[in-house]
């Protein structure tokens, strides 16, 4: 550990803590009246898809990243081939 | 075989969440599959200490109530592959944590992980009793300070009476983790010594975590201290404790932070 890191290391962590808290608390305050928004969104989006495609609930991944300006919600739904070609059964691919 | 470990203390602010994160990360770095579970319903904080607060979607209560699958609620650590977090709910009432639902989730976690580390809330209410109920091993986090030692004694009593193991007349493994320890002050007789606390509580010692500024720095950064500053004194103490949990025998020492020349000079003067 050199002298520079001795002085700078612990000094640099407080602004990071402040930024993390500001982002987190802004989100928690904004959604305090609707804490389950993500769960509701996921449920309703899934309900629409299930109307058309058979989806395994275990194969649904929901990812959220709360940012300062923009948050991203990622809903990853695995659709098996069998669910997509339900009305025209898949043929074995001919060999080359 | 999977082990369920509860990190508990009775008293608040003694370092349960810090210890959960640090031990969890150390075990995961040793190649174990680890999940750290926040049982502090309504006041979750393990997500912040782990640095995953921006990624929480579902939580323990969602899984307990069947609103989400376990796989959806688990958050994988970005630094250590085999480390996962199951966050607590921030808003719902504590009664949502039902004994049946908790039992189901813990059983499911046992199948997936080598270590299930339950971060207990302070107090002796439902969250705390739910967190300890299924435990095979308990880590009682204690500061060398009178009220903390007294509360730890209460918790040890609960571990011996209100857990699944106790109800089956089996022995629950209990370990003492002494945190915020200042060897200098203990040597000068200003702080309870390790031997004093051990004699009063009479459970085996898992580790002594020295008081260190690295702990605050790690929580500022949102990283377990064992990952944020692996060479620091508290990180080495936590890593030793994790090795003892895995059955290794490691000499009990209180690591000290390596100090630069300047802080050594000034450090001596104030000490």
Describe the protein.
In chain A, 49% of the residues lie in helices and 12% in strands. Chain A has 96 residues and is α+β, with helices and mostly antiparallel strands. In chain A, strands 1-2 form a two-stranded antiparallel ribbon. Chain B starts with a strand and ends with a helix. Chain B is built from 14 helices and 8 strands. Chain B is of the alpha/beta class. Residues 267-271 of chain B have low confidence and may be disordered. Helix content of chain B is 43%, strand content 16%. Chain B is globular. An 8-stranded mixed beta sheet of chain B has the order 3-4-2-5-1-6-7-8, sandwiched between helices. In chain B, helix 1 crosses helix 13. Chains A and B meet through helix 1, helix 2, helix 3 and strand 1 of A and helix 11 of B.
Short account of what is shown:
The complex is a heterodimer of chains A (96) and B (271). Chain A has 96 residues and is of the alpha+beta class. Helices cover 49% and strands 12% of the residues of chain A.
Draw up the topology in text.
The complex is a heterodimer of chains A (96) and B (271).
Chain A: H1 3-11, H2 13-30, H3 37-52, E1 60-65, E2 72-77, H4 81-84
Antiparallel strand pairs in A: 1-2
Chain B: E1 3-8, H1 16-29, E2 34-38, H2 46-50, H3 60-64, H4 70-73, E3 75-76, E4 83-86, H5 99-112, E5 115-119, H6 126-133, E6 137-142, H7 146-159, H8 164-167, E7 173-181, H9 183-187, H10 194-201, E8 205-210, H11 213-221, H12 225-228, H13 233-245, H14 261-270
Parallel strand pairs in B: 1-5, 1-6, 2-4, 2-5, 6-7, 7-8
Antiparallel strand pairs in B: 3-4
Helix pairs in contact in B: 1-13
């Amino acid at each position: 550990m050199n002298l520079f890191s001795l002085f700078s290391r612990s000094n640099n962590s407080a602004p990071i803590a402040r930024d993390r808290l500001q982002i987190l608390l802004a989100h928690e305050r904004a959604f305090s009246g609707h804490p389950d928004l993500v769960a509701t969104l996921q449920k309703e989006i899934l309900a629409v898809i299930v109307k058309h495609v058979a989806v395994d609930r275990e194969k649904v991944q929901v990812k959220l990243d709360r940012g300062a300006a923009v948050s991203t919600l990622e809903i990853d739904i695995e659709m098996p081939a069998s669910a997509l070609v339900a009305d025209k059964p898949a043929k074995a691919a001919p060999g080359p | 075989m999977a082990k369920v470990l509860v990190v508990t203390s009775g008293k608040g602010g003694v370092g349960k969440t810090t210890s959960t994160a640090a031990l969890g990360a150390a075990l995961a770095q040793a190649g174990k599959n680890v999940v750290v579970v926040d049982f502090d319903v309504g006041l979750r904080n393990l997500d912040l200490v782990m640095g995953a607060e921006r990624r929480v979607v579902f939580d323990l209560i969602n899984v307990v109530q069947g609103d989400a699958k376990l796989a959806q609620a688990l958050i994988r650590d970005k630094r250590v592959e085999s480390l996962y977090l199951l966050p607590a709910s921030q808003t719902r009432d504590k009664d949502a944590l039902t004994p049946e639902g908790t039992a189901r989730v813990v059983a499911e976690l046992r199948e997936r992980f080598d270590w299930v580390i339950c971060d207990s809330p302070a107090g002796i209410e439902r969250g705390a009793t739910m967190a300890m109920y299924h435990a095979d091993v308990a880590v009682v986090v204690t500061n060398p300070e009178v009220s903390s030692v007294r509360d730890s004694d209460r918790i040890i009593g609960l571990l011996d009476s209100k857990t699944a193991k106790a109800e089956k007349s089996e022995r629950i493994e209990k370990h003492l983790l002494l945190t915020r320890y200042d060897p200098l002050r203990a040597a000068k007789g200003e702080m309870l010594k390790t031997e004093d606390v051990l004699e009063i509580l009479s459970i085996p010692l898992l580790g002594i975590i020295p008081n260190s500024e690295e702990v605050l720095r790690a929580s500022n950064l949102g990283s377990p201290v064992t990952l944020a500053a692996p060479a620091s004194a508290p990180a080495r103490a936590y890593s030793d404790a994790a090795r003892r949990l895995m059955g290794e025998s490691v000499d009990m020492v209180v690591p000290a932070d390596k100090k630069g020349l300047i802080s050594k000079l000034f450090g001596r003067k104030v000490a």
